[in-house]
Amino acid sequence: MELLKKKIDTEGVALSDSVLKVDSFLNHQLDPQLMFEIGKEFANRFKRSGITKIVTIESSGIGPAVMAGLHLNVPVVFARKRKPVTLKEELLSASVHSFTKKETNEIFISKKYLDANDHVLIIDDFLANGQAAIGLIEILKKADSRIAGLGIVIEKAFQEGGQNLRKQGYKVESLAMISSLSNGKVVFLEEKEEELAR
Ligand code: G4P
Questions:
Q1: In whole angstroms, what is the distance from residue 38 CA to residue 109 CA?
Q2: CATH of the domain at 122
């Protein structure tokens, strides 16, 4: 998605060989127009999949997920990272280990919002090692929901999450795939390489 790649090129900062800072449009301040286009692109890529619901994880997944929900005209559920006091009903949970933050957290979704009739598109802002995606998949399996695939805004293709999920048979659609962040430079996968990675 050229618009997104341009934005990453102009505003993204490679903080290290493995971390990209995109606070100005995705992780802190949000660019609504860009989010709208991102949602449209996800909707386009999954429009024939019979999606009934979108599932993401707070907080940065919510922006792109809501926009995809708007374009696909389906509800959006976000997994909570803390058990909310208002959630008294039965919860589905999974533990997610973050290699970036070196911590493990439990994530929760109310059983009420997912069931066997759902065909779910998982959306997230970043795909690195894939632990958040694996946690969401675990919850969806507990709910007996079907998984149509994953829509990712930025995939760090030099980390293993995307390949592992694709090997397991999941359709993973990433709008920008980064092959390297070395020496402070963001390098995208060439289109041909993107096809191969898929
Ligand atoms: P994984 O789920 O793919 O295994 O990722 P990992 O544990 O490595 O990442 C944990 C958190 O860090 C996630 O956000 C993820 O989106 C974010 N993250 C991973 N790599 C990068 C990166 O290169 N740049 C940025 N900006 N974020 C990255 P989170 O803790 O859930 O944060 P938030 O959604 O509340 O913002």
A1: 24
A2: 3.40.50.2020
61 CA to centre of ligand 1 in angstroms: 10
What's the distance, CA 78 to chain centroid? Answer: 11
The reply to whether ligand 1 has any atom less than 6 angstroms from the CB of 27 is: yes
Atom of ligand 1 nearest to the CA of 101: 10
Domain count within the chain: 1
The tens digit of pLDDT for each residue in 35-67 reads 999 999 999 999 999 999 999 999 999 999 999
Q: Are 198 and 172 in contact (CB under 8 A)?
A: yes
Mutation to probe ligand 1, out of 126, 172, 186 (largest number of atoms < 8 A from CB): 126
Contact present, 49 and 121 (Cβ < 8 Å): yes
Q: What is the pTM of this model?
A: 0.95
- Structural domain boundaries enclosing 120: 2-197
Ligand 1 atom closest to 129 (CA): 4
